Amino acid sequence: DTAVSQTPKYLVTQMGNDKSIKCEQNLGHDTMYWYKQDSKKFLKIMFSYNNKELIINETVPNRFSPKSPDKAHLNLHINSLELGDSAVYFCASSPWDRENQPQHFGDGTRLSIL
Amino acid sequence: DQQVKQNSPSLSVQEGRISILNCDYTNSMFDYFLWYKKYPAEGPTFLISISSIKDKNEDGRFTVFLNKSAKHLSLHIVPSQPGDSAVYFCAASGGAGGTSYGKLTFGQGTILTVHP
Predict the structure, then answer these.
(1) pLDDT tens-digit profile of B78-104?
(2) Long-range contacts of A51-57 (CB under 8 A, 24+ apart)
(3) Using the beta-carbon criterion (under 8 Å), do B43 and A106 form an inter-chain contact?
């Protein structure tokens, strides 16, 4: 009964490859996010979607393309992987309303580029 | 430009004593603040939050204090337990509406170790 689940948990691949990370939430939330935790441990937002519509798109290389087939899923596709893409990627979700609500996070996908 | 800062990378406390974790922010538009706890190989888990209209929020052993004039918040854990040992992240949000809705800005985390 995991609330926010990400697959795969670990991903090791070669530079230049294309890979995807999947995220699903069963909390009934309308908004989903992708965060990147770099080597300095900072968690930084990359994208957010509300009910399949892109809301936040931070300064992220266009090699990163999020896709939301429905409001319970938000996938992240990365083209032409580079060494600097090595990080932990976290998916999160929250309700969409006017009251402040905490975001709920998945356990992360650890991406290592060789 | 770090808008949320946790200046103490680590904190070590004896079991049963108080743990105080601090966080400073620079953006006066932030109006919602959260603390997350993170264990290794897991995602951040929401702990407690506070809106800018309050200066204190309490939930069991956890209390968050907000000092808007100083742009400072702190998390108090009393009494501390060994199971509280984790990384604690402070986060802030600019509130509802607009393209920044839901965007959380995180500090770099403080590693709390509670010794038995």
Answers:
(1) 999 999 999 999 999 885 455 556 789
(2) A51/A96, A55/A31, A55/B99, A55/B101, A55/B102, A56/B99, A56/B100, A56/B101, A56/B102, A56/B103
(3) yes
